[in-house]
Design brief:
Elements (H helix, E strand, L loop, with lengths): L1 H7 L13 E6 L6 H6 L4 E5 L1 H5 L7 H15 L4 E4 L26 H7 L1 H15 L4 E5 L5 H20 L8 E7 L2 H4 L2 H4 L5 E4 L1 H8 L18 H16 L4 E3 L7 H9 L4 E4 L1 H13 L2 H13 L5 H11 L3
Helix pairs in contact: 1-13, 4-6, 6-7, 12-13, 14-15
The structure holds phosphoenolpyruvate and magnesium ion.
Family: Belongs to the PEP-utilizing enzyme family.
Protein name: phosphoenolpyruvate--protein phosphotransferase
Subcellular location: Cytoplasm
Length: 325
């Protein structure tokens, strides 16, 4: 099976009836980069920069940050890399974090909230990203944006850092893309506020669905509540995709669900065309895509999604079985 996936590496990720789907990699450490060549991914859709902080006892110095980001960009060559800025807190605590333990860390002082409250740390990272780009393209996204102000504040810091570097003789990125992760359900209803300012939205379903389903992603006993192939979840993801289309914002999905063939097919049925996933998902998802007749699947999937009877999950499983995935 592994060999069969390897053989797919050079094949386009295109449905049987000709729709191209971009498959990208979720990565976080230098060792993940090997997977890019092995899988033939179209780029890195999510680079989790906090991993470098989590594996070290001390905060990585700016030189170490620049070196890591540069190696990622060098490795990717002409393929795009989307750096996600520090996403600490929640399930990703620093080894020496002395922060008071919160009752609900997923809902607490984490992610972009933490970064904006630690501007020294955050700015150093943004500076490292600008320096690593070294006059080439740079794509940055901010995690768990809940309200537009967080995005604007973070983007302003990034612009300040570009100016700071420029004033010191370092080149500006040749092309800058600034995105936001949609992981907090409220932000799905706040996209109007960032339209025109945000270059892309990346839907982080791991967090988004734990909030949407009120089921902690870290608690196995509620894993069932985490069902993605459910009408409420799919209608919500459809709403997000339609909002992005209405507002002309490019959108992708980077949560783990994108790596599971049935779920990935549902996302494509909703109109998503860019998926980013762990390396192990790329082969199976590509194999699924290449066997699928999207023009047959999509209308029936949407009909099931908007019907008011029947069990959605069974209908979807029956439809995906027809596609022999
Ligand atoms: C997500 O929440 O879906 C996501 C991609 O980010 P992480 O899993 O790192 O929280
Ligand atoms: Mg997340």
């Amino acid at each position: 099976r592994q060999a069969a996936f390897q053989a797919l590496r050079e094949q386009p990720s295109r449905t049987r009836d000709g729709t191209d789907i971009s498959l990208m990699l979720n990565a976080g450490l230098a060792i993940d980069l090997d997977s890019m060549a092995k899988t033939g991914a179209d780029g890195i859709g999510l680079f989790r920069t906090e991993f470098q902080f989590l594996v070290s006892d001390t905060l990585p110095r700016i030189d170490a940050q620049i070196a890591l980001y540069r190696s990622v960009l060098d490795f990717a060559g002409s393929k795009p890399v989307h750096f996600r800025t520090l996403d600490l807190g929640g399930d990703k605590l620093l080894p020496n974090a002395s922060a008071d333990l919160e009752e609900n860390p997923a809902l607490g002082w984490r992610s972009i909230r933490f970064a904006l409250d630690r501007p020294g740390l955050f700015r150093r990272q943004l500076r490292a990203l600008v320096r690593a780009a070294d006059g080439g393209p740079l794509s940055v996204m901010f995690p768990m944006v809940t309200i537009a102000e967080e995005f604007f504040e973070a983007k302003a810091l990034l612009m300040d850092e570009i100016e700071w570097s420029r004033a010191r003789g370092h080149p500006e990125p040749s092309e800058l893309r600034v995105g936001a992760m949609l992981e907090a359900p409220a932000f799905a209803y706040g996209l109007d506020d960032v339209a025109g300012e945000v270059d892309f939205i990346s839907v982080g379903t791991n967090d988004l669905l734990q909030f949407f389903n009120a089921a902690d992603r870290m608690v196995p006993s509620v894993a069932e509540r985490y069902d993605v192939v459910s009408r409420p979840v799919m209608r919500f993801l459809e709403f997000i995709r339609n909002e992005c289309e209405r507002l002309d914002i490019p959108v992708s999905v980077c949560g783990e669900v994108a790596s599971r063939p049935v779920e990935a097919l549902c996302l494509i049925g909703l109109g998503y065309r860019k998926l980013s996933m762990p390396a192990a998902g790329i082969g199976p998802v590509k194999r699924m895509l290449r066997s699928v007749d999207l023009s047959a699947f999509e209308p029936r999937f949407r009909e099931a999604l908007h019907a008011s009877n029947g069990t959605f999950r069974n209908e979807v499983l029956a439809l995906t079985a027809l596609q022999e995935i």
